What we know:
The structure is a homodimer of 482-residue chains.
Chain A: H1 17-28, E1 31-33, E2 40-42, H2 44-63, E3 67-68, E4 74-76, H3 77-80, H4 84-90, E5 96-105, E6 108-121, H5 126-136, E7 145-154, E8 168-178, H6 181-202, E9 208-211, E10 223-230, E11 236-246, H7 248-253, E12 256-258, E13 264-266, E14 268-275, H8 277-286, E15 303-307, H9 312-331, E16 336-338, H10 345-355, E17 359-363, H11 365-370, E18 372-377, E19 386-389, H12 390-418, E20 420-422, H13 426-434, E21 440-444, H14 453-459, E22 463-468, E23 475-479
Parallel strand pairs in A: 3-7, 15-16, 15-17, 20-21
Antiparallel strand pairs in A: 1-2, 4-6, 5-6, 7-8, 8-14, 9-10, 9-22, 10-11, 11-14, 12-13, 17-18, 18-19, 21-23, 22-23
Amino acid sequence: MSKQPRTAITPTRADDFPEWYQQVIKAADMAENSPVRGCMIIKPYGFAVWENMQRIFDGMIKDAGVQNAYFPLLIPLSFIAREAEHVDGFAKECAVVTHHRLESGEDGLVPAGKLEEPYVVRPTSETIIGDSMARWIQSYRDLPLKLNQWCNVMRWEMRTRLFLRTSEFLWQEGHNAFETAEDAREDALKMLEAYRAFVEDNLALSVFTGEKTADERFPGAIATYTIEAIMQDGKALQAGTSHDLGQNFAKSIGIKFQARDGSEQFAHTTSWGISTRLIGGMIMIHGDDDGMIMPPRVAPQQIVILPVTKDEESEAKVLPFADKLAAQMKQKGLRVHVDKREMRTPDKMWDAVKKGIPLRVEIGAREVDDGEVTFVRRDLGKASKETVPVELFIERMERILDNIHDNMLARSKSFREDHTFNGSTVTDIDDFFAKESAGLIKVPVSLLSDPKLEEIMKKYALSTRCMPFADNGEKVLIGKAY
Amino acid sequence: MSKQPRTAITPTRADDFPEWYQQVIKAADMAENSPVRGCMIIKPYGFAVWENMQRIFDGMIKDAGVQNAYFPLLIPLSFIAREAEHVDGFAKECAVVTHHRLESGEDGLVPAGKLEEPYVVRPTSETIIGDSMARWIQSYRDLPLKLNQWCNVMRWEMRTRLFLRTSEFLWQEGHNAFETAEDAREDALKMLEAYRAFVEDNLALSVFTGEKTADERFPGAIATYTIEAIMQDGKALQAGTSHDLGQNFAKSIGIKFQARDGSEQFAHTTSWGISTRLIGGMIMIHGDDDGMIMPPRVAPQQIVILPVTKDEESEAKVLPFADKLAAQMKQKGLRVHVDKREMRTPDKMWDAVKKGIPLRVEIGAREVDDGEVTFVRRDLGKASKETVPVELFIERMERILDNIHDNMLARSKSFREDHTFNGSTVTDIDDFFAKESAGLIKVPVSLLSDPKLEEIMKKYALSTRCMPFADNGEKVLIGKAY
């Protein structure tokens, strides 16, 4: 048996990627399974990531003229049934509310007060928001109408995985309405571009942008655009989608307006969403065998300061120095945490590593005497350890965080490129996955009509991920996916 | 028939207060009823108020060491049943999820996939969060644990009113756990004080703070503290509550920890919440017969600029001036809106009035020539109209907004004081409400044990509102309430 290097996470990514993923979440204290079937509890350290994402993306959509609002959690059955493809897409995974009170029965509490019409807990809100749009939109002057809500949604899942696939998740769902088909298509593409910019600039995720094939479209859409990422095990993750709904929902719900020429027209609508699933993606792209690596711009803590003290004397020296440094960082708008817990320094150090805090600063009595700090970058590890004068560090720390971001994004981009392969026949696809290759294969879209394709897709549980814009829609990416 | 002054809202407050309330919400475009029984749609202008409240209060609780997290929407029936008083309090108003998919039946879609154990949509989360606390708390070192979530909750209501009482509403629910009874009581009082400060400093609502009588306590609490406001029709509104849950939930759920002396103890917990109901309170305290008056610190728009133009020439002059002024305001962190809609100026003016925008600035060609602006305060109306040099206005505008806040708070305080009366017997209460007096009556707590009290309370549909701290718990406030 060969001696393995010690890692903070067991198993390693190479040994068992799915189990490594669960253990990273546990070690970083981000989320856990709940006693409610398929639902997760997002713990404070995980939720803080979502709050940072929300704050940043909310600013982006407000700049794009989108207004936030709030629509009911429950959707009448008759609403969800309005768009035929839509209801087919969601009927199998709807939580249904059928009663409105509880009564004491023989075996304890039982549902009572049966509803005349049951409701589903929203799996998505096209139909209920469309119903409002139909009332709010009268004339072309009311268009465009751009609405968004940050909320919880529920899709009953049989096999769940924290963040990636849970029965309840948090997301934003945008719902826009336009005068023309061109406006809607342009908007759907614009929101996809917003997602690409958001995940690259803030989560350091490099993604493909492209259109979904017909069978992977959102139920009821005429086109679905997607950002797709590759995880470290070579599987794809759909990280955000933007749908051009054409007039499908407008016609089935009755979203009509008086056009500039006086005629009555149906609106053209779009919808677009990103969710807490992105946190799962961040973990599977950035994490290593020592745990999470947080992209600095959404990291709950960007810098952790570890005061290294032996006795009361060194404490009296180190703590005020650490507090002053933290105050200077906060003044620059950085999220910093001074870890003063009564705990061994190596334990604190490993905790910071597992939580993926981008920059770790260690201060001992010697550092105070010399007016210096020692820091380590999480993305580069021990090799990046440096001791520098405190003034120099303060001057450089924002640049260091930017460098960490840039490095993580560059890594994610190379990984994506290195794990995307080209093929030209169905046999190429078969060969690629027969070798258990990690990654996606890109083939001509003409293969979609090849009768042998379906069998190979089933054989390896593959799906089409998108037709990348970069290839002018001439190629299609195929692979395994989360 | 006497000639009435024209008001923007029909009916007036004096004519029909409940209908006036609905019409103010409609005129300000804040919310509307949805096709889902008892649920509201919060429209962008109303939702922006909630976003401002969230941002401010979230900062306050984070400063108090509270961490945000997210717990499941659904609660197993067995959980809600754990605390006997608690389930009694909520069983009559629970939305119950019994199925997890839909099937096509003879009459269309029907619920299918019956769940073994039904779930209720959370009416509040003590039981499900308590279940996590029981796992997360092991030792006194894990205490205090302070958690909060911003979320939707559902309590099935038969008679609903926008913002004030709806089947679904948005709120924050804080759940804290402590080592000792004293710590928990202190925390419950501290969070109540946070609510008082929050609503006075930001919503300009003057409130009573006090303890609820036993029969008005939160189901399962040992003490409920409340902030109570008086609406312009003299009815009370419970605006926020903080509960000392003692060890009731800890014992029924099993939230135990190893104490400093090595013994095993049950934790002492608290919970505390404010909701979108506060928006209803703001309307009923501040609004007038011309519509809403927004407290400046949570107003979606603090200042509206109306460019007054007759032709293209004046437009070319006025619009750049207005935009430059708006940019200067934004730079100071103010929320400003330039109303450039193609609409008559008086219509825009009335729209700003009905929406309650605190400060309205009008700019015509003459103002541009003279380097002046004309402004009107919404709280004081036409009488406050002033034309001043633009530099002076820029220098003063933040102070003016503060003055508006102070004036609204002072009004709310005088109104509350002027509508609180003293009594000493049950007959005093009878006399007070027989005269259809608007307001609350404060009587000695000893009357609570008077056998004649119940009859009088029923006769006028009264309830005890609180035992104000200001009276050292020796008095109890009684009145009608929302």
